From TrEMBL:
Gene Ontology biological-process entries: methylation; rRNA processing
Annotated InterPro entries: 4pyrrol_Mease (IPR000878), 4pyrrol_Methylase_sf (IPR035996), 4pyrrole_Mease_sub1 (IPR014777), 4pyrrole_Mease_sub2 (IPR014776), rRNA_ssu_MeTfrase_I (IPR008189)
SUPFAM superfamilies tied to this protein: Tetrapyrrole methylase
Keywords assigned: Cytoplasm, Methyltransferase, rRNA processing, S-adenosyl-L-methionine, Transferase
Name of the protein this chain belongs to: SAM-dependent methyltransferase
Length: 261
């Protein structure tokens, strides 16, 4: 008589605080619900962007809520490097790389946590291929509650919260970047849709100068740096007003940009 298979484990989408790479950290209990922290403390199998930052996050959780097993016994698997660079959304170059191989613990009945370095995994971060693989395996996918920088920025921007789009990263080439800015502004003028995007922190000042140079004076431009931190800087004003200010986002602080009408 064959042994029955254990029920599939669940994939938990575990949000992380938004202070990765910042000079200071936010108290976990101030930015993450106790239920999220308690669930994360119970997990011992992880898929993540970076194992080192995953361990650092688990140590922060352990200081508040003891982990269910010593950290040394946790199974931590990293997403492949090409997924970081190319993305893992449908249609990307990294699509179909076989994310199910990272979810083998589900087949043994173990729950797995999916973790980004900051915010909600698979939103402005890799991980969507892992979520798709879990669905295709028939496993339950459970999102936990935590901060999402894109929505926090939108909510504080005064831009259109009924119609918005996340555009990821704008082109690095100056000419292509200016063309893309004008395209998105034209779309916003026609539809009223707010446009949201991010940049690698050390390129923040260059992007900022391009926005001020190429957006129309009446366009509203919002910027949110260091979200959830005590030193958070969230501002929203017309481009004409911005041009009178001696201000630029810091090179070392994660920042979300948005513009619209």
């Amino acid at each position: 008589m064959s042994t029955p298979k254990p029920p599939l484990g669940r994939l938990f989408l575990v949000p992380a605080p938004l202070d990765f790479g910042c000079a200071s950290q936010a108290p976990l209990e101030a930015v993450l619900p106790s239920g999220t922290l308690q669930r994360a403390a119970q997990l011992t199998h992880w898929v993540c962007e970076n194992a080192k930052s995953c361990r650092a996050y688990l140590k922060r959780i352990d200081a508040l809520i003891p982990l269910s097993a010593p950290l040394q016994s946790h199974t931590i698997q990293e997403l492949p490097r090409h997924v970081h660079k190319k993305g893992d959304h449908a249609g990307s170059a990294a699509q179909g790389w076989g994310a199910q191989t990272l979810l083998a613990p589900l087949l043994a009945g173990n729950d797995v946590g999916l973790l980004s370095e900051a915010g909600m995994p698979a939103v402005a971060d890799p991980g969507s291929s892992v979520v798709r693989a879990a669905h295709d395996m028939g496993a339950q996918v459970v999102p936990l509650v935590g901060p999402v920088s894109l929505l926090l920025t939108l909510a504080t921007s005064g831009l259109n919260g009924q119609s918005f789009a996340f555009q990821g990263y704008l082109p690095q080439d100056a000419g292509e970047r200016s063309q893309r800015i004008r395209q998105l502004e034209s779309l916003s003028l026609k539809t009223g849709q707010a446009q949201i995007f991010i940049e690698t922190p050390y390129r923040n000042p260059a992007l900022w100068q391009a926005l001020l140079a190429h957006l129309q004076t009446t366009t509203r431009l919002a910027v949110a740096s260091g979200l959830t931190l005590a030193e958070a800087d969230i501002q929203s004003r017309s481009v004409a007003d911005w041009r009178t200010k001696d201000w630029a986002p810091a090179k070392h602080t994660p920042t979300v940009f948005a513009f619209g009408q």
